[in-house]
Write a structure and sequence with these properties.
Elements (H helix, E strand, L loop, with lengths): L12 H10 L1 H55 L13 H11 L23 E9 L1 E2 L2 E2 L7 E11 L10 E13 L8 E3 L4 E3 L4 E4 L4 E3 L7 E3 L5 E3 L3 E3 L3 E3 L8 E2 L10 H9 L7 E3 L7 H4 L1 E3 L12 E7 L3 E3 L4 E10 L5 E3 L4 E5 L10 H6 L3 E5 L9 E3 L6 E15 L13 E10 L2 E3 L22 E4 L2
Parallel strand pairs: 6-9, 6-25, 7-10, 7-25, 8-11, 8-26, 9-12, 10-13, 12-14, 15-16, 17-19, 18-20, 19-21, 19-22, 21-24, 22-24, 23-24, 24-25
Antiparallel strand pairs: 1-4, 2-3, 4-5, 5-27
Length: 468
């Protein structure tokens, strides 16, 4: 019988490690393994930090949207713009928190907002949403001490994991955004083309020391200077589209590609468009125009006379056509309202010196009548194609008030520099405006949010923008 004996050699761990260390390959493998331990830890910690960054970016987007939404709501409250209408059923902070909830950030127990994406948070995670009004931010104060900034602050607290090795038990991720309501242009324009262009043709000369012109047209020639150089506009002008010129540098002071400027008298246009003759107690069918203040009536005759004497005084409503031709003289303090079916035709070289009523009368609400302050002419007719409404006079004529033709292209020439009051309300609002002849513009005495709070009769723009 043969017996095989296998001798086993016992090698200690220490010897084994010494052999590895004496082997080049073993040494490299061991060093690599040792080095990978902290590297893997750093990579894992970096992954955790990456989740913080993602959360912070989400929070910042939510804060931006919340601040902007709250500021839009605040803008409605402080708007000086006539005709502004808003849904004011919720406060600014509700609007901000609603948008934050739609981006999955809510205060605990306050998640019931339309479109909310907030859900039950995992244990150890909490969120906070704060929306606040500010009267000043970063050295900029609001006009009149009012609140014009909305600040949204969003935070999320969550537990640390690998970061505990660095002594962190919780991580606070936060974001802040601030939105500003800019309620007015520094120098509101005194000419507004609501839908069309503003053009200066031929030898038109315009003197406008205090205000600019504006057009809501998006055309490349929304403000167009054609063959003239007698334009003196010392305030910024604004257009949604571009500016064109045929020589000269008139476009230099025009700010192009701006936001539209709302029609400040849109509520007046809406009310007068809806006004029916049945709202008047009487009708005047004679050729002598009668003001509402004396007869509670409208004027229906197609041959009505406005010739001086006597001077016009009061608020005149016309359903018939009114023609001014030749060289008559028309004077007074009056507001002339032409219904949509009526027409105003001015030809020849009349002397027209009119000042708008400070407090017009009529079968309208007190709110609408207040917005009609300084309205000298309202023409509700609609022009099409090459049709236009002409408002003009001779070299001594002026229209000291607001000329308003929201549905018509208006050919305008008036406000003599020699005879018109030095300061006044020489303002034009129409669908489109063509300047011809000599014109003086000035809105220093037009109703606005300062001289007549809430009227907002001057064209203006309200902007909301993120400032942080």
């Amino acid at each position: 019988m043969f017996v095989h004996v296998v001798l086993l050699r016992t090698v200690s761990i220490g010897c084994f490690m010494r052999n590895i260390l004496h082997c080049r390959r073993g040494s490299a493998a061991f060093a690599t393994a040792v080095a990978l331990v902290p590297l893997i830890g750093v990579m894992a910690l970096g992954g955790e930090a990456g989740t913080w960054y993602v959360t912070q970016q989400r929070a910042q987007g939510a804060a931006d949207a919340a601040a902007y939404s709250g500021a839009l709501r605040l803008a409605c409250d402080i708007s000086g713009q006539a005709g502004t209408s808003c849904n004011s059923t919720q406060a600014y902070d509700y609007r901000g928190k609603q948008v934050a909830a739609q981006n999955a950030f809510c205060n605990s127990g306050d998640t019931s907002y339309p479109g909310s994406k907030c859900s039950t948070l995992p244990s150890g995670i909490s969120q906070s949403v704060t929306i606040a009004q500010l009267t000043a931010w970063n050295g900029t104060s609001c006009n009149g001490g009012a609140n014009c900034f909305v600040q949204a602050t969003i935070t999320q607290q969550q537990p640390a994991y690998l970061a505990r090795m660095l002594g962190m038990s919780t991580i606070n991720v936060g974001a802040t955004a601030v939105a500003q309501v800019d309620n007015s242009l520094a120098q509101p324009p005194c000419v507004l083309a609501v839908t069309g262009s503003v053009t200066f043709q031929g030898s038109a000369t315009v003197s406008s020391p205090t205000c600019g012109i504006s057009s809501n047209s998006s055309a490349s020639n929304a403000i167009g200077f054609v063959g003239n150089s007698g334009i003196s506009v010392n305030a910024p002008s604004y257009t949604v589209g571009g500016c064109s010129q045929t020589g000269g540098s008139q476009c230099t002071g025009v700010k192009t590609y701006q936001q539209p400027i709302p029609d400040p008298l849109s509520t007046v246009s809406t009310a007068l468009t809806a006004l029916k003759t049945s709202a008047f107690a009487n009708k005047n069918g004679t050729t002598t125009a009668q003001p509402y203040e004396t007869c509670s009536c409208y004027n229906s005759n197609n041959n009505v006379s406005l010739t001086y004497p006597p001077a016009l005084s009061g608020t005149y409503y016309f359903t018939g056509n009114v023609t001014i031709n030749g060289s008559p003289t028309i004077k007074g303090t009056a507001t002339l309202v032409f219904f949509a079916g009526a027409t105003l035709t001015i030809t020849g070289s009349p002397t027209i010196q009119l000042t708008g009523m400070g407090a017009p009368s009529g079968p309208l609400s007190s709110t609408v009548l207040a917005k009609m302050a300084k309205l000298v002419i309202y023409d509700g007719e609609t022009t099409r194609g090459n049709q236009s409404v002409n408002i003009s006079g001779n070299s001594t004529s002026y229209f000291n008030g607001i000329v308003y033709a929201p549905n018509a292209t208006l050919n305008y020439s008036g406000n003599s520099s020699s005879s018109a009051p030095a300061t006044g309300c020489y303002e034009v609002i129409a669908a489109a405006v063509n300047f011809q002849g000599n014109t003086k513009l000035d809105n220093s005495l037009c109703p606005n949010s300062t001289t007549n709070p809430g009227s907002g009769a001057e064209p203006n723009a309200q902007t909301v923008r993120l400032v942080q």
